[in-house]
Amino acid sequence: MQTKVFPLQDETKTELLGAVLSSVCPADTTIYLTGDLGAGKTTMTRGFVRSRGYKGVVKSPTYTLVEEYLTDGIYVYHFDLYRLNDPEELEMMGIRDYFSPSSVRIVEWPSKGEGILPEADLEVNLEIVGNSRNAVIHALNEKGGAILEKMVFPRPAEQ
Description:
Distance between the termini: 28 Å
Radius of gyration: 15 Å
Strand content: 25-35%
Structural class: alpha/beta
Order of helices and strands: EHEHEEHEEEH
């Protein structure tokens, strides 16, 4: 399993990492986002979605379970399973319908959907380290490895 660690000094860098990931992420990709409350999962997702041209508000789906963003013909589904009581609830909401070839799925708190969620291509763990954060990204399969290999952060023009 391939792994890369990216330092994130602030919210801007966290959002930028989401944008960098988005720039190399094809459709039909699943990303698991893990980390403590307040680690920056939704901030990273905001960078991912906005870099694909979405102009509206990107918010946490804590109460709705999923937010949908249409970007250039590809849907980005942002799940937050923190409030999920039982993984079977995902079946009732039709979770499999979201996992189509024309979508990217970003799942916060994936452990809450264990046994129901399809396997991820990448896992991004946001760690709080003192006053900053690290993003530890694990490629979980060949597709994830190809995505991770293409990631350059920060972008050369922004160093």
